[in-house]
Automatic annotation (TrEMBL):
This is Peptidase S54 rhomboid domain-containing protein. It comes from the Eukaryota. Belongs to the peptidase S54 family. It comes from Chlamydomonas reinhardtii. Residues 68-209 form the Peptidase S54 rhomboid domain. Its main location: membrane. Keywords: Membrane, Transmembrane, Transmembrane helix. The lineage of its organism: Eukaryota, Viridiplantae, Chlorophyta, core chlorophytes, Chlorophyceae.
């Protein structure tokens, strides 16, 4: 009786585990995809700032006059205009899906947040407080997804594809920072609109290196595991 009970308990546990996994797999793609989740977070943040009086945009965008540490994160999901959020949602969907398919869910989130936060941090450091700007790091975060998903990995294999997409993505990204152009001058040239893009680019380059190294290590471990699995089989066949 005890054996039967234990067997039944084990069977029910494994069945519930399979049921949970099946339920997770049965979720709509929108609920499983980080690209959709990031795009939704951008839209929700914009609506919240527009509809909730106690949540002004100056609290979540990067306020260069009085910056707050949390704005390094929130500015990656906040937008000053409807046009900005629509454009960011489009780029996040297109390029985020590429990162998601090639590298997985958590990598997509990590790349988006790292590129956005780095862009905001560089802007905080370089753009003076007297500029009195409110900036969003979301376009720069989307630019980071483009670099990690398309720009860097396909540059050697498909340079024509990158050459076609990069100017469009770059122009759209820098266009979001046109108001920040005169905030920083170098030899008389307005370069304020490039600060966020450079920050996201540096983070994307580092993220690509880390992804390459980590995936190389995981592939090597998997090859070693498969080789060790084959050895007992080959030894038994020889005997």
């Amino acid at each position: 009786m005890t054996g039967l009970t234990g067997s039944g308990s084990s069977s029910s546990t494994s069945s519930s585990g399979r049921g949970t996994a099946a339920a997770a797999a049965a979720l709509p793609e929108d609920l499983r995809s980080p690209s959709y989740a990031i795009a939704t977070a951008n839209a929700v943040m914009f609506l919240a700032c527009a509809l909730v009086p106690l949540l002004p945009a100056s609290a979540v965008l990067l306020n260069h006059k009085a910056p707050q540490i949390w704005q390094l994160l929130t500015s990656s999901f906040a937008h000053p205009s409807l046009e900005s959020v629509m454009q960011c949602v489009f780029f996040t969907y297109v390029f985020g899906r590429v990162v998601e398919r090639n590298h997985g869910v958590w990598t997509t989130w990590a790349v988006y947040i790292a590129c956005g936060a780095t862009a905001a941090a560089l802007a905080w450091w370089l753009i003076p407080a007297k500029a009195g700007l409110l900036t969003s790091a979301a376009p720069a975060a989307a630019w980071g997804l483009f670099l990690v998903g398309v720009g860097i990995p396909r540059l050697a294999k498909k340079p024509l594809e990158v050459a076609c997409l990069a100017p469009f993505a770059f122009a759209a990204t820098t266009g979001r920072y046109a108001h920040a152009s005169a905030a920083l001058l170098t030899d008389g040239t307005a370069v304020g609109h490039l600060v966020h893009v450079v920050g996201a680019g540096l983070a994307a380059a580092l993220a690509s290196c880390v992804i390459h190294v980590v995936e190389g290590i995981l592939e090597a471990r998997e090859r070693k595991r498969l080789e060790e699995k084959r050895q007992p089989a080959s030894n038994s066949s020889v005997q």
